[in-house]
Amino acid sequence: MSFNDSLKEIARTGRKVLVVGLGVSGVESARFLSRSGHGVIVTERQSEAEFRRKSKFVEGVDRLIAAGVSVRFGVDGEQVAPFLDGVGLVVLSPGVPLESAVVGTINRFRIPYVSELELGIELHGGRSVVVTGSNGKSTTVSLLDFVLRRGGTSSRLCGNVGIPV
Q1: Residue of 17, 40, 44, 127 with fewest CB within 10 Å of its CB?
Q2: Is pLDDT at 123 greater than 80 in this prediction?
């Protein structure tokens, strides 16, 4: 079954998608999934007061809440367990380590998870170039985007540079 088919099956059966993390990737993933007709729950490790005081994405979160997305603050590790009932897929924001307690809880419940990057690439369905590593990613992808565009190939710079995938 393709990734798109899996997402359609999740929606058809009334299961939800949980997005972990309210950075730009989490907000945009939740927004996309909600617009696509999925029931979405978002969890954020920070308290709501701390998030609203520190985050650049308060407006985006307020729009999610207005659109009916369930947003839960102050959730980490085992605290995510009550929100996993009826969840068919988890989308992890890039800042969520696979070794974290929240991912351990998701694994214990045997719910599949993908990164925001995987979600975007799978749904895009086209060719992609992915650059990983500790140093030089922004420079490398900017250079690749420049070369592709200069060569007449349509290219969209996204991820850590540009727009979320």
Answers
A1: 127
A2: yes
